[in-house]
Amino acid sequence: MRPLSKVALGGGFVSLATVGGLVAAGLLATTATLVVTDPLAPRANADSLSRFDSCASLLHWYVDHSVDEVGPYGWGGPAIYAMDMPMGPMDSAPGFAPEASAGSVDSAKSADARASSSTGTNTQEADVDEPDLAKTDGRRVVRMVDERTLVITDVTGAEPRELGRMPLPIDVYGGELLLAGDHVLISQAGGGNGMGGGPIAVDSGFASDRVTAYQSGTRILDVDISDSAHARVVHDDSYTGSLVSMRLYGDTVRVVTSTDRPQLAFVMPHEQGKQSLSDAAATRRNRELVRATTIEDWLPAVVDNRSPGAHSRLLDCTDVYHPDEWSGGQTTAVTTYDVADPDHRQSVGVTADGQVVYSSADRLYVASTRMDFQRSLPGSDAMQGRMVMPVRPQNTTTQLHAFALKGTDTTYVGSGHVTGTVRDRWSMDEHDGKLRVAWTRDRSGTITDSNGETRQHSQNGITVLTERDGALVPTGTIDQLGIDENIQSVRWFDDFAVLVTFRQMDPLYTVDLTDQDHPREIGSLKIPGYSGYLHPIGDGKLLGLGVDATDEGHNLGAQAAVFDIGDLADPQRVSRQGFGASSSLPAIDDPRAFTWLPDQRTGLTTVSTWTNDKSRLVALHVDEAGALTATDLVTDLGWNVRTLPLEDGRVALVDDQSLRVIDVG
User: Fold this and answer.
1) CA 295, CA 218: separation in Å to the nearest integer?
2) Cα-based angle 437, 439, 445 (whole degrees, multiple of 5)
3) How does residue 205 score in pLDDT terms, banded at 50, 70 and 90?
């Protein structure tokens, strides 16, 4: 029996156990969409998109390209999936990981210690703030309690003092915050009666009786906390489309949403009274529904929830771009506005799925991975009345769409792609106008083993893309990193990168990017285990959070380690600290759960224990030589812990149960 395999469905992941290479997925939700593009659609050329010149041409694009994807059960289902895919290690976790001669790199200067953002979050880019579970401006901490209440707390004194709490108009399960001056922006993705798209589907003037009552969506509340005791909602918008991400640039907000194909009231083969509806008849009726759609059924919309009936298009038809070939029926929109003037929003869109967002101060990139599949399956003729979609990727491509950022203006500048998958946003980085992408390609080449046998292998690498004539053009690549390994972490610096892969041993690679169009491997370090998150702490050193392992790759629990990369040709692990066989570090999955305090040379991380469901806060102190000391600070923590730096070595410690102020140093 093969391990569980993840199939992306409806924006999430469904684990399917594969037995003998075949999985019966059953009757899937016919309105859900695979995150990977429909395998029956032609492969897209994502480079250099074109703008639609009218709503008629945009509607024609959507309908004509998608109608053949509709069958007797609607968009594609039900389906039988055949699994024949190499899977990575089950305990892998996200996060991301030059010679002293000509072209060498001054790593100590490039790898300066990184502190948290001004609102307390450990962000990917210093000038771009990200949503989080709690935020601070140094005086106040804002957080949500019981997913229904916004709480504002004064943290200037020795003990926290609650200033006010405001019941929110709806449950905000999974919601996150941005803090801009006296404005708290609460974002929630969801559907049905949640904070997401329920109100859109029911009330939007564009919906017809062909559209179901529930669609995924995004709701954003703007709460004014200038009078903390009387906080109030000043803006409340719902967007059609799933929330991909938000970013804050000073007072400018950017919201990235991905809207699926219309969720139509498709019929299915069944007995209608005394009349049986055949597969062919159901297919004809369902395709008629698609042909009868209007442009409003496809384009994302926005609703002002304070004014019922105040619906508007999020995008003008001429602000939508498309590849030369079909790339699926989704529409990704980037919406920009000033916090002080949210009614004057500007949006630009592409006819493609949006899955991952990375943003620097002047560029935003939306990435989505698509897989092309082998279309034949032995014995498929027996699957009458069902669409057979074997899951054996013949080619995996990650499409990349770039947007230029200037004030409250966002403009599309070009698209490109890399072959392979991109782990997450930490796999991307922009420097000097070039996008650097770390990727993994499964079974992309051949290798001869010690027995002289040739076999397929996976590999990792970095591709550099340059904006040129409206496209992102690959101008530099390094490959063959971590043969048969999976990327666990990447950390980017101006002129070099550190990349960690893992299967049994932990190869830590240093890559010279001084000449970005000619990246080259400089050094490597192979040790058991891996680092799932890397943080620069200055003096040419990195602090790695990860997993200890045997030489055979068996998990021995969480660990922290200090790496000296002062000589990039010879990286060294100078110290480590283990946390026990049943421990884990939440910051490996979510780096926002880690805080580095440069003045104290101390990192703060939560350590969880599987066996007793306990969590504790640990201080990781690193001296100038790189020696690592771990000290327990708090041992009675709940979940979703955040440590927000304040002044004088104090930290606001927030979990799902409480807020307290601790003195680190």
Assistant:
1) 20
2) 135
3) very low
Judged by average pLDDT, the poorest of 48-57, 75-84, 486-495, 574-583 is 75-84
Q: CA nearest 205: which of 267, 294, 277?
A: 294
How far, in Å, CA of 558 to CA of 535, rounded? 16
| 327 pLDDT tier (thresholds 50, 70, 90) | confident
Do 531 and 426 form a contact (C-beta atoms < 8 A)? Answer: no
Three-state SS annotation for 37-59: CCCCCCCCCCCCCEECCCHHHHH
pLDDT in tens, 28-55: 333 333 333 332 233 334 467 889 999 9
Would you state the structure tokens that stand for residue 105, as one six-digit string?
Answer: 């790199």
Cα–Cα dist 35/7, whole Å: 8
384 Cβ contact list (under 8 Å, min separation 6): none
Within 10 A of 577 (CB to CB), how many other CB atoms are there? 15
User: What residue type is assigned to position 221 of the chain?
Assistant: L
Tokens representing 606?
């939560």
pLDDT tens digits, one per residue of 138-195: 999 999 998 889 999 999 998 999 999 999 987 778 889 999 999 999 998 764 333 3
Residue type, 28: L
CA distances 281 to 30, 210, 264, 382, 502, Å, are 17, 18, 17, 20, 51
Exposed (0-12), middle (13-18) or buried (19+): which is 313, by Cβ within 10 Å?
Answer: middle
SS3 424: coil
Q: Which amino acid is at 198?
A: G
In DSSP terms, which residues pair with 547 in a beta bridge?
530, 558
Residue type (1 letter), 503: R
Average the pLDDT over each of 29-43, 355-369, 419-433 and give the range with the smallest value: 29-43
Strands 5-9, 12-16: pairing kind: antiparallel
Give the rounded distance of the alpha carbon of 630 from its chain centre.
Answer: 31
Cα–Cα distance, 57 to 138 (Å, whole number): 51
Contact 180, 246 (CB under 8 A): no
What tokens does 285 get? Answer: 């009726």
Distance CA 144, CA 135 (A): 10
**Under a CB-based contact definition with an 8 Å cutoff, are residues 507 and 521 in contact?**
no
Q: Which of 529, 519, 537 is nearest to 604 (CA)?
A: 537
How many Cα atoms are found within 13 Å in the side-chain-facing hemisphere of 13? 6
Nearest-5° angle of CA 231, CA 237, CA 238? 135
CA–CA distance, 661 with 643 (Å, rounded to integer): 9
The count of other CB atoms within 10 Å of the CB of residue 472 is 28
Q: What is the mean pLDDT of residues 305-315?
A: 85
Q: What's 60-96 look like in SS3?
A: HHHHHHHHHHEECCEECCCEEEEECCCCCCCCCCCCC
Give me the sign of the Cα torsion angle 339, 340, 341, 342: positive
For every residue of 468-488, DSSP letters joined together read: ETTEEEEEEEEEEESTT-EEE
Widest CA span in the chain? 84
Side-chain-facing half-sphere of 457: CA atoms under 13 Å: 17
Cα angle value 299/302/305 (rounded, 5°): 155
Q: What pLDDT shows up at residue 634? A: 95
